Every structure is written in structure tokens, then in C-alpha cells.
Amino acid sequence: MPLARIDLVRGKPAAFRKALGEIVYKAMTETINVPANDKFQIITEHAPEEFNIAESYLGNDYTQDVILIQVTLNAGRTVEMKKAFFVRVRREDVVINLVEVAKENWSFGGGIAQYAT
Asked: Taking the model in full, what pTM does it have?
């Protein structure tokens, strides 16, 4: 189960935010083996002054429209899969961070660790 947190500057239309979430979800299903209906996303808008980001880093330039994406997911994807995900989402003005955790760290409700063996 991936949990995607998507942060962006306030002011984008609801349709943009929804499309952004769908792009991230589709990229996960097509590149890092996320199953259908395994979609948990939090899309949060912020005032521009709440972002404190360098104008450039490692050859990438960022504007006020930068989007930060953090995905918490089960450990085990290959480096190639992760690279495919990064390319698939968007190349400009996007920073992506993957946080891998052990499967037993999830509960989908009912107080049960469904993935724990």
C-alpha cells in the first residue's frame, strides 16, 4: 500500500489537483507494481511562503509551482522500477521521495496488520 503525500502551492483548480493525483496513481500502477484500487493520497495546498526550497539543486531548477511528492510504500522495488516511476510522473518542477517500510507497518483498519505474517 503506498501512501502518497502531494504538496503544492495554493491556487491550482480542483481539477488540476485531481489530475495530479491520478497521474501519480497511474504511474505507480504502471511502474512499481501497485495493485488496482490501492490508492491512498493526501493532496495539500500551501501558501507560497510556506515552501522553503532552493531555486536549483543537482542541475534542476524550481519555480514557485514546484510539487513535492512523498510516497511511503513497502520495501522491495528495484532501482530500475523506481527510476521508471520518477520519469513517468513528471520531470520538471517535481521532487519525489520514496520512503520504504516493512509490510508489517500497515493496518488497513479493524486494528489488524493485514500484511504481517
From this structure: 0.90
